[in-house]
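tool=predict chain=A
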Amino acid sequence: MSSINETHDLSLQSWVESANDRNVDFPIQNLPFGRYRPAGSDEGFKVGVAIGDMILDLQGTGLADSPSMNALMALDVEKRLQLRRAISRGLALNSSQQKTWSKLLTPQCEAEMAVPCRIGDYTDFYTGIHHATSVGKLFRPDQPLMPNYKWVPIGYHGRASSIHVSGHAFRRPQGQTKAPDATEPAFGPSRRLDYELELGYFVGQGNQLGQPVPIANAEDHLFGVTLLNDWSARDIQAWEYQPLGPFLSKNFATTISPWIVTMEALAPFRAPLVRPNGDPRPLPYLDSEANRNAGVLDITLEVLIQTQRMATAGIAPERLTIGNAAAAAYWTAAQLIAHHTVNGCNLLSGDLLGSGTLSGPAPNEAGSLLELTEGGKKSIELTNGEQRTFLEDGDTLILRGWCERPGAARIGLGEARGTVLA
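tool=predict ok
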């Protein structure tokens, strides 16, 4: 588990002036990784580091040997720490690298971003206990949580090919749906399109087939975190999900933020894993003292919407909910790694694990419209007078995340933005 070091120093400043704003997502204490190229060009994408409102060409600094993000992610923990220190020192105020590195900067507003790495596989989990309970009450009032929920991290195999970076638009999915009073299903576009507020955990070093990752070493295999929106067609999902789980209701689109905030950057923002009294203690392969003491990530998460009418009128996006991942997740990222590999499954560098919907205990902390509208029974009224139960064509949904604590620099995860097309 990463520890706090010189790169987290609150007093540390950069010669990139925009990075010294206290409210910026990417101060020198963050240094997230992404892939970019000049907007409008046909150049190959290269690895960059966000600093303030700029992007540093990492390969140009000589600190990276290739334009492959996956190769960088596969480095062992000590080499990753060395790389972080070198980048931090080069970007620090009065650094001898300023003259050379200043020529390697590209304004973020002039860059085209790509999915941060090659994602070979994607597994989506169900770690948000408040979401699982709220949704369970809609369908199983007498037993909201299934008996296995507090014993085993629940997940399903997602679709990596339909993961796109923030800013993309996608077509409303079509599929089979069945009304409760209908004798047979109908085919057509989803009418209950929803979002899911999640974190995505990127695998760094993989493991060999047949070699489980012990919980004590699990964080060594985590590279970093991104924002993730697992778009969901609730009406298609309701008809198809038994007995094997989601399929067409989930695999049409997933949106992630373009930046991976590393586990090293998140070191000041750890929290203990707290379970309610009376809940079972995890089985030994899912339990460790370090995970209990600091396995949770303290990340504030926000959801905003901008309808087409709002955009046309120049009205800014409106907040739907705000909450915190630490209050939402029943299982930690380390536990997901340990569980995913316990049967011998081999994870690869760049694989993505979704947290599942991270809803808090309060109504204004819900991570989906399914919860906010109580299954579509209650409309949400926006400030411009529009109402929503589920997403309509032209709606743009925005996820944002950040960490802040006394004594530490505020760092952000950027945003994951996607738009629904007809």
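The chain has a mean pLDDT of 96. The CA atoms of residues 159 and 251 lie 5 Å apart.
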